[in-house]
Amino acid sequence: MMLIKLAWHSLGSRLGTVLLTIMMMSVSILVLLSVENIRHQAKESFQQSVSDVDLIVGPRTGQINLLLYSIFHIGVPTHNLSWDSYQMLQQQPEVDWTIPLSLGDSHQGYRVVGSEQQLFEHFRYRADHSLEFASGNAFNETYDAVVGAEVAASLGYQTGNAIVLAHGIADTSFSRHDNHPFQISGILKPTGTPIDRSVFISLTGLEAMHADFPGANTAPDLTPQSVTAVLVGLTSKIKTFSLQREINTYSAEALQAILPGVALSSLWSMLSGVEQTLWVISLLVLLGALIGMVNVLLLSMRERRHELAVLRALGYHPSFLFALLQLEAILITASSIIVALLALSAGDMWLREWLLSQFGLFLADSLLQAGTWRLVGGIMLAAILSALLPAVNAYRQGLGTQLR
Amino acid sequence: MFVINDLKFHYPDDDNDLLNIPHWQVAAGESVFLSAPSGTGKSTLVNLLAGIITPQHGTIRVMDSVINHLSSRQRDAFRARHIGMVFQQFNLIPYLSVMDNIRLASRFSDMSRAEADERSHTLLQMLGLTTLDATRQAEQLSVGQQQRVAIVRALVNEPALLLVDEPTSALDAAHRDQFIGLLMQQLDTSRTSLVFVSHDSSLKHHFSRHVHIGQLQHDAD
Lengths: 404, 221
Prior knowledge:
The complex is a heterodimer. By secondary structure, chain A is of the alpha+beta class. Chain A has 14 helices and 15 strands. In chain B, β7, α7 and β8 form a beta-alpha-beta unit. In chain B, 40% of the residues are buried.
């Protein structure tokens, strides 16, 4: 095909400019595809912070509050759930397992979460992943602690290290529990969930730390008084709603039971502003690159005046010139898309582990999903529309061409 | 070969007629030297004869077609098939090979690609270019070589009319005479009419007829 040959050699004759344009376009396409993917993946990652939990039970506050404490370990719980109510929950016939969570302390800015062995047995995230240890094992002794991957990485902890926990969440807390150093019994593998940023101790340890009699001969009563929230797994999903209603109307204490999926969705929709900002920024980057390409094509029109005149003289219709410019824009865009996709795949291959360990961002199996192809189609369409400007310019120049 | 009747042409931004030619006729096989100083509308006349632009008034009949009454697509197809053009310089697409430059024209002919290529090679050889030259990129050739390739391309479809506009201004005196000699030699073997436009009257002895653009215009006499 003469048209393809012309477009190809024409681009080849301006290789330097064309390569720079392709670089510019592919960088912006890469940004767009990455943002779109990470946006998508962040949502997935977020939605999968917890799975297999049927109900989250806590004191009556609000759905988002309860979710923030229990899953994201964010916020200061105003009041707790009594130990009696926790035991009541455990005794419900529909309840298969419970994971109690108790917040209130911190270590170097990371939240300390009091829990029980069930956490390591029953907690699931991302469909069916349970917590795994990179080294060591779960807490056995009163003063044992298990730290998340990010905590261990950023503070340089190994199993066996002693750490001091502080009351409250301020980093420079004056009320350090210096008398009760904890020993790290295990370090968790990265999960891409808030687990990575938490320190786990047993509820008994939490009580012992606050019961201020070090070295006392008489063993104190270390039964917890209360917990912040409880993750509940049921024997059958069908009973979820009836148990939720039962808990919400429990007369001995004001309790609240929420469905994790529903709460996560409504929390995510509160974050959608950030998501959209990212999206708009990457669209602007693409717009910049498209303007750059149009600029390069328009600038080339000056030096190609003779070329277009020759084609007209040989009997080529102005629509041929239009098609030529469009084809050049399509070739540039297609090359840029290919470069961007290759870079994205390379990044996917090499950065996957790093993203998970550094940013807790878990990438699903493939970055090249249906959404990616739709986006690539959209970029191509945008390029074709942008190239209308130089293409129509060539058409008009062809119509009024003066041969000299 | 072509007849112009009552032609009037002006550019959109100018009210005065640049060209006003009551009648001009060139017969088949004639070679006409049209002398015209710069700015007198010679390139405009060439573009009108080629059907790239159309006059506001009058008719231009080439062979059996009134070309200014054809649609723009029909005019392009007519030009591709029946009219050859050679310009002052920049005749070739610089980044294509010599052969591809010729193929840009020969694909419109009735010949098969192999026949057209063979004819192109023959013409190239007659004009002193080798088979090796045919594979080179157009921009690697000298200006003189490029002009010879332009003749080959203009003639490859055996046009009825060859329009040549100041083809020698980029050449020195020796090459100029050689160029015209080669051009006339090719024309002798075909029935192609030639209109050769130049401001340089010293070339007129090569041609069968000499016309000054002023003689064509309405206010001449």
